[in-house]
Amino acid sequence: MNAAPRSRPYPLGVTLVDGGADVAVYSERADGVEVCVFAEDGTEIRTELGHRTGHVFHGVVPGMAPGTRYGLRVSGPWDPASGLRFNPAKVLLDPYATATWGDYRWGPATFGHDLDDPDRLDETDGAGQVMLSVVTDPRAFDWSGDTPPRTPLAETVVYELHVKGFTKLMPGVPEELRGTYAGLAHPAALDHLRRLGVTAVELLPVHQFVQDPHLIEKGLRNYWGYNSIGFFTPHDEYSAARDPLERLAEFKGMVKALHAAGIEVILDVVYNHTAEGNELGPTLSLKGIDNPSYYRLVDDGPRHYFDTTGTGNSLNVSNPAALALIMDSLRYWVTEMHVDGFRFDLATTLTRQDEDPNIHSAFLSLIHQDPTLKPVKKIAEPWDVAGYQVGGFPADWSEWNGRFRDDVRDFWRGTPGMLGTVSQRVLGSPDVYEDSRRSPLSSVNFVTAHDGFTLADLTSYDKKHNEANGEDNADGESDNRSSNNGAEGPSDDPEINARRLRQRKNLLATLLLSAGVPMLLGGDELGRTQRGNNNAYCQDNELSWFDWQHVDDELHEFTRMLVRLRLAEPALRPDWYRCAREAGGPRTVRILRADGEEFSDDDWEDPEARAIAFVLAHDGYDAFALLLNAAENGVAFTLPEPPHGDWALEASSDPGLRLVDPGALTLAEVSFALLRSPA
After folding, report:
1. Which CATH number fits domain 13-138: 3.40.50.10860, 3.50.30.20, 1.10.540.10, 2.60.40.10?
2. Tens digits of per-residue pLDDT, 15-72?
3. 492-499 contacts: CB < 8 A, separation 24 or more?
4. DSSP state of 188
5. 488-504 b/e (C-beta count within 10 Å ≥ 16 → b)
6. Would you name the residues annotated as active-site residues?
7. Whole-angstrom Cα distance, residue 643 to residue 466?
8. Cut 0.90: pTM above it
9. Given pLDDT bands bounded at 50, 70 and 90, which one contains residue 582?
10. N or C: which end of the chain has fewer CB within 10 A?
């Protein structure tokens, strides 16, 4: 006779065993935990986790198998003033669930407190009203033949895209697959990415998230997905499959297809907060399992949440349980889902063990020593609502460089005194990174991202137009450093449109020809517009989806050319730049005035100067001269002596530019030129 399976406290979540599953749940303050298995007809069977090891409740639940739907009921003190919010009437999502079923019906069943009296416990049962966890089997997918590209950072071009918006209207993708993981894996989608030449997609959040009640009331939806509730679960609405187990396989199939196309998968992850909000928010998972362990509470008022995210709560990264949840999730997505890296939303919040961010925080230290996570790409959004930390992350991290975005926009819109600053951005922001001996690859450069204007709108609007968001146009950034050229919004004037196209090319060229890791906002290469909305987080409709019927073919081909050129030429994607000769090393960059002379200290301070030239070289390869003119008039450049063969015009935003004199070139107003000296 076989002995009954022995229960173990780790790993947390569900582990399949003979005849059922071993379930483990961490809670330092709970009195008891029940696993509630739900049949398709809603029948509920409860099993108490009868063992407790340390702060982990665990036990074997008979009959659980792949596809089983379940939730947790956690009992303990109800004392909001002390931060304790246990309520066994609520069915909670397992924080370690790897698939989900159903949705939330907002109302008393999803709130631990009485909606009219937040201090009073609400006893409305959550059964049948909430999202459930689903048991999965990680062995069910065949990963054979999958080879992660492992593209070096110096050869990486990131493409930020939304899983749904990218293919929702894409011709060539079958209707039933549009807007899904399977749609992104379809040959039509892969072909666009391959032809564009990008080496990685950075997916807006794909962790399971929930819809915000206040948006639903206004007829809107959370589109961006920065409202996570399941750190191990692919978001269900992005799947063509309805069965939770098939959804999991669909996501893995997408990753495998992208890898086969030579494209890495980077996830935009939101570990800084969850969808449970503040003390007036719903009780969906962590809040009802162990609120003080998982969330940062106000020291002298633990009824309230310490919020550095602007969403109501912040994860308590000072607590080992919350840290373990994040680390276990990261390892899961690398080992089980084969993703290649992460972009950490509001990463500064994750480094705050006390009040201030710290490079020596437990979160950063754990990632640094973890053999699974150390090799993958790690990109920080180096700020939160309480502080800005660009340049403050460890050497093996890259960072969204908001200074690149702001300074490049300022330069091209003609802000005085920008030559010194823009030269730093083109060279990989050494003013930000060199003091800590970090390379240009620490800088993820971008001029637009999901949060803000698209490139087309940046060059077509002076003001935001967020009226469709239902907030009286008060939301979104006010100062977008826009580069409007002419009229507000669409124009039929050929001269205005030509000027706008030139400015788009200027911005794209500066992005793709600067040192660092370029990130292109998906759709910018097509001329995608959001009609002036610079905060389309709640616009799950044609305003945000890619419009494949109205594509700027010239801009698309221009972007493809620049990406191909960057990846082919080492001089345009250096690991390091050296502005002066060093022992044993060549001079790889020279910075010159328009007259071909070196800059003096006074030259950098000249508020009227708008033109600058860079000579970029790499031993044994072609050299390039990048000329930038942000002046409202043409500028005559004296060309430097070519390092190799004579200069030839490679690219420009000035459509009439011709290189007639090998020693001089007049560049039209607000335009760039790239010259090549072949080795």
Report:
1. 2.60.40.10
2. 999 999 999 999 999 999 999 999 999 999 999 999 999 999 999 999 999 999 999 9
3. 498/655, 499/670
4. H
5. eeeeeeeebbebbbbbb
6. 345, 381
7. 50
8. yes
9. very low
10. N
